[in-house]
What we know:
alpha/beta, Rossmann fold, 6-stranded mixed β-sheet, 4 helices, 8 strands, 23% helix, globular, binds inosinic acid, binds magnesium ion
Amino acid sequence: MRVMITEQEIRERVRELGExxxxxxxxxxxxxxxxxxxxxxxxxxxxxxxxxxxRVALIQASSYGGTRTSPTALSVNSSLVPDxxxxxxxxxxxxFDTGKTMVGLLESLKAFHPRCVRTAxxxxxxxxxxxxxxxxxxxxxxxxxxxxxxGLDYNDEFRHLPYIGVPDESDLVKAGGHA
Length: 179
Ligand code: IMP
Ligand code: MG
């Protein structure tokens, strides 16, 4: 496993993001909406880096039917989403890759009548993005490499790693998959 972004670098950028959110949402009714499962580590750290009143909610998005990096269909489960009427929502995900997940989530949230929706991610794979949307907040732009850790998985493994790493072939085999 090659370390791409260290635990210390993540901590620093998440702290900065928390400060930015605290400034921009100081007088707004904020709900941070974490996208399961990849955002859980970032969600836990980010909310403790903020100093404004906020609510936490969860939504589930899964891409399936394709290969590791080219999923074909998106399924959104919004059954856990609370009332968001009139609230300012910040969707929080682990990574903005093609961007299709975020576009699908924005569409799904319309039914909840929030006042305003913005998006935040830990990682943005800029070379892969293929939608007319950019994340409002991001911590790191990264090249087109498959990464795991800090919530991101391969075959549901590696989410617990405190850093962002690039798995090698043997890591992937150990995780029960294939490159
Ligand atoms: P999208 O392409 O922006 O819709 O991202 C789809 C989903 O693919 C993300 O929410 C992640 O769960 C997953 N994904 C994309 N790139 C990576 C990666 O490098 N490592 C792990 N998961 C990834
Ligand atoms: Mg995900």
